[in-house]
Amino acid sequence: MIKNWVTEHLYRKKSIAIIFNNKNEFLVDQLVSYGENDWNFSGGGIEKGETEEQGLLRELQEELGTSKFKIIYKSKKLIRYNWPLKVSIQRFLKNNEIYLGQSQRQFVLKFVGTNSDINPDSSEIRKIKWIKRSEFKNYLGFPNQLKITEDALREYNTNI
């Protein structure tokens, strides 16, 4: 019971979009708050009253300027991780939120638009890039990021 309360209240809920296109490339982005070699998949926090899917699609619209995505698969795994103390303190000072870290679910999505449909919000995203799966190791450098991504794609059972 206490464990459920901690997970529910002290971990920010987040959805991650593993987006692929017709060329079997994956979209990664670099947030303005990231270092030059830090990349991630798009996504973001789930607001009160939203489902994970609704929050994900809202975040993609806000961050990438388009809604031309089709959710293909929702991972069964919920990944929970702690932030460095510095990050928790910064979030508290900026947003008056107390979180130990995030609880995130990964989704596999197909991009059904054209590259000209994507208009990243420059206040949040520095760069975007389409990469091949074989390039993941060059871009996914956060702790366990590569493993979590590969696990979600294996769970979906894709050869992309």
Description:
The chain has 160 residues and is α+β, with helices and mostly antiparallel strands. It has 5 helices and 6 strands. The chain has helices at 2-10, 52-64, 85-95, 136-139, 145-156, and strands spanning 11-20, 26-31, 43-45, 69-82, 101-111, 125-131. The strands form 2 sheets. A 4-stranded mixed β-sheet has the order 3-1-5-4, sandwiched between helices. The model has no long low-confidence stretch (mean pLDDT 90).
Brief digest:
The chain is an alpha+beta fold and about 160 residues long. About 30% of the residues lie in helices and about 30% in strands.
Low-confidence spans: none
The count of strands amounts to 6
- The gross shape turns out to be globular
DSSP strand (E) fraction?
25-35%
Largest sheet: 4 strands, mixed
**Structural class per helix/strand content?**
alpha+beta
Helix content: 25-40%
Query: Could you spell the SSE succession in H and E letters?
Result: HEEEHEHEEHH
Distance between the termini: 40 Å
